[in-house]
Write a sequence for this structure.
């Protein structure tokens, strides 16, 4: 797996703001390949490397919300299955909603986490076009959510913790999805998750796209990777509705307050998991280690609670979310 | 003032706002309808039966028993938590404009009322207010309504008409879906009935939470109901949508709702439904 992740580094997709860094790194590679026993470029390489690190720090400390949105969707970013193989043992995927079909855009399965038997639920994007056709870009249809509901209810019956990984542009908007009740499937998942008497942690690893993300996001703890986003609507969708111009996505992205730190400020996200400089895709292994540590610490806390305590505290967690003021009702 | 407890058929002050001789064109058959006749017919086209949208005050008057509605949480306002603005246009100002146009309730009006003598907790989306969008205020009002229904063990009824979550409150709006669904789940466990009425239109985050979670789900004819809006779907799949797609009758055919009920029969249908639930636990 790690080898595979490294292998991809070479073909890594480069975002606009990553380009200067990528250019420097290419120069370093070139120098390295030109080095022989007689010609030594090591001091130049070292200088360039320092420059690259500095540049990366500069670029990443000043990312705009819109750039972070792009980063959260980075095609080379680790996806659910990457974390599964880097963090869990004995993963075994389970399939199907027992009603219509299996939805590969979202997956569920048994796994062992630090000696604890758990259920994994997660959106799965594809790494290439062929995979993305199969995975539908991580956009689930109703049967996907219904599969998750089935598995999560099973996990609760057997008191297995549920670890969810959120990474989706949103639920799929298509004719079949509407015919089979996309709205109902999401709604039911929300309702069911509020009452499951087993610990639930939901980690946003990339894109937290609207209702399709929330459908596996009702949890005792909400964790977010540093460059993950969570939003009521995509910036593009918001721009086209409110600005009447899809080109205003950058404006929408900054207005929507969708970054991990925004959600932390809004007291929705419980912990931001730091990413390596340059983002999770630059070092999937290190990122996975941080995710593992965060999951371990939070799971340790909530495993101490009884089922009833869990659902009562979960209720209160969501009950508090919202911003409003109340004037005394004016007399009529 | 109790503008919602007007008598049936709408008294004079309802008609005052309508200049005599005003005609409305039916969105379906194109028939020009005399405004007075249209109101008399509960805004159902006299030619083809198409159900036009009903203003919220008229809706409330149609459903609850006269003078029975007592509003709750009336003074609740959005605080614009994200300081949201579209270029120079501030969300705060949009809220003020919406308030002056459609009243101070934000996009949700809730209260205790009776329906044919049955005590209920009722709530009505105000579609006129920013497309009935659900932000923190709407989510909180719905949650409190459901909690009151649980406390009093009386049926909860929600009349949805909403484009979905309110974008101007960002992820806080999204989270209202979870909050309201959690309150709905408590009702279900306690055996307190919840009836969801879906009106034109019910989409997005409202459809994908409490609205599709009724013990019984009732719609009026030709209401647009779905998760994604038709334009978004068309843009995604790049093909034209079939006739009647995402309308009440389509949802009925696909098993997503229990009944499509004519507006004139809606109150009697609700009353009958409540009666079925009432004997068992709510009055125990």
């Amino acid at each position: 797996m790690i080898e595979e992740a490294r292998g991809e580094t070479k073909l890594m997709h480069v975002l606009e703001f990553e380009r200067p860094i990528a250019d420097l790194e290419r120069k370093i590679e070139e120098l390295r390949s030109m080095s022989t026993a007689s010609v030594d470029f090591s001091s130049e390489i070292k200088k360039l490397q320092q420059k690259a690190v500095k540049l990366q720090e500069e670029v990443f400390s000043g990312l705009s919300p819109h750039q972070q949105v792009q980063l959260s969707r980075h095609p080379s970013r680790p996806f659910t299955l990457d974390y599964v193989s880097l963090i869990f043992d004995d993963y075994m995927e389970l399939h199907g909603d027992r009603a219509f079909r299996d939805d590969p855009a979202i997956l569920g399965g048994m796994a062992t986490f630090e000696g604890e038997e758990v259920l994994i639920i997660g959106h799965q994007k594809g790494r290439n076009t062929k995979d993305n056709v199969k995975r539908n870009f991580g956009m689930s249809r109703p049967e996907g959510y219904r599969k998750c509901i089935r598995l999560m209810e099973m996990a609760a019956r057997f008191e297995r913790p549920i670890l969810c990984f959120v990474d989706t542009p949103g639920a799929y908007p298509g004719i079949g999805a509407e015919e089979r009740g996309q709205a109902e499937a999401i709604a039911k998942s929300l309702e069911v998750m509020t009452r499951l008497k087993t610990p639930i942690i939901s980690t946003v690893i990339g894109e937290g796209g609207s209702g399709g993300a929330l459908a596996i996001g009702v949890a005792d703890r909400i964790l977010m990777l540093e460059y993950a986003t969570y939003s009521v609507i995509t910036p593009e969708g918001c721009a086209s509705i409110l600005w009447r111009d899809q080109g205003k996505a950058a404006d929408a992205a900054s207005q929507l307050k969708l970054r991990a730190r925004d959600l932390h400020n809004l007291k929705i996200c419980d912990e931001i998991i730091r990413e390596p400089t340059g983002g999770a895709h630059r070092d999937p292994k290190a990122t996975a280690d941080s995710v593992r540590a965060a999951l371990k610490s939070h799971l340790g806390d909530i495993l101490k609670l009884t089922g009833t305590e869990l659902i009562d505290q979960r209720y209160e967690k969501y009950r508090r979310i919202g911003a409003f003021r109340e004037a005394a009702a004016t007399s009529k | 003032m109790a503008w919602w407890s007007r008598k049936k058929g709408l008294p004079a002050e309802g008609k005052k706002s309508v200049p005599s001789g005003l005609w409305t064109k039916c969105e379906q058959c194109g028939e020009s309808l005399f405004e007075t006749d249209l109101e008399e017919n509960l805004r159902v086209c006299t030619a083809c039966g198409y159900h036009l949208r009903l203003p919220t005050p008229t809706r409330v008057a149609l459903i609850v028993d006269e003078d029975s509605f007592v509003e709750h949480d009336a003074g609740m306002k959005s605080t614009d938590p994200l300081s949201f603005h579209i270029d120079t246009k501030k969300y705060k100002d949009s809220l003020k404009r919406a308030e002056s146009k459609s009243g101070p309730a934000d996009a949700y009006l809730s209260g205790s009322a009776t329906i044919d003598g049955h005590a209920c907790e009722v709530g009505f989306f105000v579609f006129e207010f920013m497309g009935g969008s659900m932000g923190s205020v709407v989510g909180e009002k719905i949650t409190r309504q459901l909690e009151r229904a649980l406390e009093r063990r009386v049926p909860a009824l929600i009349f949805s008409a909403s484009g979905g979550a309110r974008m101007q409150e960002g992820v806080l709006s999204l989270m209202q879906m979870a909050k309201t669904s959690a309150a709905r789940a408590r009702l279900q466990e306690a055996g307190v009935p919840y009836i969801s009425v879906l009106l034109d239109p019910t989409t997005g985050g409202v459809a994908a939470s409490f609205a599709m979670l009724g013990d019984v789900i009732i719609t009026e004819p030709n209401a647009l109901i779905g998760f994604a809006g038709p334009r978004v779907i068309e843009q995604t799949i790049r093909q034209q949508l079939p006739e009647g797609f995402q309308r009440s009758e389509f949802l009925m055919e696909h098993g997503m709702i229990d009944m499509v009920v004519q507006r004139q029969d809606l109150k009697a249908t609700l009353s009958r439904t409540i009666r079925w639930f009432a004997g068992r636990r709510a009055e125990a």
